[in-house]
Amino acid sequence: MRGGVSMVRKVLVANRGEIACRILRACNEAGLPSVAIYAENDASSMFIELADEAVLLTGDTIGETYLNQEQILAIAKSTGADAIHPGFGFLSERADFARAVGNAGLQWVGPSPEAIEQMGDKMTARITMRAAGVPVIPGEEIEHEDEADALAAIEAASHRVGYPLLLKASSGGGGKGMRAVHAPEDLIESAKGARREAIAAFGDGRVYLERLLTGSKHVEIQVLADRHGRTIHLGERECSVQRRHQKVFEEAPCATMTSELREAMGQAAVAAAEAVDYEGAGTVEFLLAPTGEFFFLEMNTRIQVEHPVTELVTGVDLVREQLRIAAGEPMSCGPLMMRGHAIEVRLYAEDAANNFLPAIGPLTVFRPPEGPGVRLDTGVREGDEVTPNYDPMLAKLIVWAPSRHEALQRMRRALDEFVVLGTTTNIRFLRELCDEHEVIAGATDTTTIDRIWPNGWQPTVPRAVEDMALMAAAVAESAGLHRKQSMASTGGQGQPSPFETIGRRFP
Hints:
Elements: E1 11-13, H1 17-29, E2 34-38, H2 46-50, E3 53-56, H3 69-79, E4 83-85, H4 95-103, E5 107-108, H5 113-120, H6 122-131, E6 139-140, H7 147-161, E7 165-169, E8 178-181, H8 187-202, E9 207-211, E10 217-225, E11 231-243, E12 246-252, H9 259-275, E13 280-288, E14 294-300, H10 307-314, H11 318-326, E15 341-348, E16 350-351, E17 357-358, E18 361-362, E19 365-367, E20 374-378, E21 385-386, E22 393-401, H12 404-417, E23 419-421, H13 427-433, H14 437-441, H15 448-452, H16 463-479, H17 481-490, H18 498-505
Parallel strand pairs: 1-2, 1-4, 2-3, 4-5
Antiparallel strand pairs: 6-9, 7-8, 7-9, 10-11, 10-13, 11-12, 12-15, 13-14, 15-22, 16-17, 18-21, 19-23, 20-22
């Protein structure tokens, strides 16, 4: 069906949690029947209720459930689904699964297996981009799989690349198999560590070297391509604020972007997509140096976690566009038009004060913020249990406002209102981040968090004190006591609720 005319009549969502909810809602709005798949430990999850059908996966582990290609394909066939949307994570960038979906006569909501393969192997991607005229970071590919040969080649290449340098795994992502090396004496041990981590995570120990560009911003360009010869970009997202190479604060547009630079990066991203005959939604990631030079980093051949900020500033529903493109229809969006500013933060069940270790526990209280310009993408609700089985991201909080200054103000307000009890979260960390000078000025780069908190983040307010205040706020909000009592005694001139005052008590 790829390359020709197809139709999508029923979609199976091969994912869970927040992104499954996002896709299922898009299917509902598009009038497409949907199928959810779920593991036993997800039996009470929100995403199941959003699907027209839900089918239990057999097995106990992730490998036996959400990564079980044969089982997922069998469910698609038995339910009459003719398309599979993989979301992000799990099987979304597995070329073998995309190929198996096509071989089964089903429509894959994403790019071709060949494009996934070309961009999934980062060394191959570098070579492909270089040939397409897309600027790549100075570096060298190391093809050796044997450790002794690989280490010798890495040492020889290091003299040509120069220090500081970055060792990166050829496969995978998420910062795994990545090491910064600042001195020759650290090279070999760092290379061994990167290879071990890459083998454990991806089954592929190959690494390559790149010049480490200090002070650079992480800027990515959203692209869309359909089967009618149209490939466009939808502007940029800045994702510089990271911890251990994981994004925590994303915004659109980039605070320091010019229209000329946006066009240059956008055209490079389009060239990258066209070089691999890309189809659907994808993201081309760049490093933007202080000099204004930009270099290809990688291409993510799927929908991104941070796609909502692009949706809010462009008005384009990226998941709906994915479904249209998969059905063989032309994309519906016109030329790029950006308005206002959007910011996203990732709310995790984790202890930011303890090296961001994942946390577990019940969501005894889960009260997200509301109000104009506030969007919450989540797959959890009050009463759910946070377990160690899956990624600890609870929600994505996204705000939009006419200007960046107003968007930051709105994000501060939203985080002040967000009440989560029962497990530890990174809400306070995110809130303090919004008050940092570098963030306010838009002068962030990929080392911002390490530079602000070189010894790790610690809260300015003791957790026990904060929890007591949040509990009081949640109880008062649930009972409506403050509002009712004050209105009765003052003739309607109510006192501010704890939600309105908590931010002032705990800046």
